[in-house]
């Protein structure tokens, strides 16, 4: 079951019964397993699971009446292997009763939106929630100095801009704070079947992005409506009666990568139609057209590399350049 489906089921269950949402926020060991699992539970049972369900019982047992808690679970090699893991390790888990703000996190995850939240590690109390492109939401009373709150919000914003699922426990003004970002796996739509489309699909598979190739107008519009912030719309067709309506839908999704093939004349014609439809210059200028980085590509395979690279740079918020001349982190 996908993370989106698990989140949707937990959210639905919480509408009728008091339900806890638990997440692993830090892992050491366990054979390279990563965070991102969700567990929802109440007296009726569990939805999802942590580490293939290997630590669910320990997490459920600690559940208290104050609505939030945190704990560390250690699992030896023998017990871990018996439960289907490669090796033992240590997991730090945070659990919160599904309040309105926790429900907002679940709703965002189930809708394939990028969402971030910050909590206090010691108590497990949720502090802030923020969706990509939206304002911060405060989860109840935050008994922290304003300067500390500002630092937490700034750090959460930095992590959110990377658009990648990540968890971390960091110290902010003597407070251990849990930072979480949940981002959906990227997918995309290619409008216009061709050898180039085939090459693009193959190239994107290498970066774990599934693309769907469409031609007809209705299928194009239906598929585009399913795209979210971390996704891609790649328009190869020169038929503006298909490409322009698709752009009109895609431009309403904050952060979505939109790339369009075509000459300068084709780009200008598309631009004029979108402006006439009521979109602003900044919105239209966000479309990558002509599509792809300037790598000197000639063949469909080379062009596909240029497009995939541009998509990655867009998604990570990077300005494409050589690592040799760059400063700061190399990866991520």
Overview of this structure, please?
The protein is elongated. The protein folds into 2 domains: 3-182, no CATH class; 187-316, Rossmann fold (3-Layer(aba) Sandwich), CATH 3.40.50. With 332 residues, the chain is α+β, with helices and mostly antiparallel strands. Strands 3-2-1-5-4 form a 5-stranded antiparallel β-sheet, with helices on both faces. A 5-stranded antiparallel β-sheet has the order 8-7-6-10-9, sandwiched between helices. The chain contains 11 helices and 14 strands.
End-to-end distance: 27 Å
Helix content range: 25-40%
Q: Beta-sheet strand percentage?
A: 25-35%
Count every helix, treating DSSP H or I runs of 4 or more residues as helices.
11
Total domain units: 2
Fold topology:
Blueprint: H1 3-14, E1 20-29, E2 38-42, E3 45-48, H2 56-62, E4 68-75, H3 77-82, E5 89-97, H4 100-110, E6 115-120, E7 126-131, E8 137-138, H5 146-161, E9 166-172, E10 175-182, E11 187-191, H6 195-205, E12 210-214, H7 217-224, E13 232-235, H8 240-250, E14 257-260, H9 264-276, H10 281-285, H11 300-316
Parallel strand pairs: 11-12, 11-13, 13-14
Antiparallel strand pairs: 1-2, 1-5, 2-3, 4-5, 6-7, 6-10, 7-8, 9-10
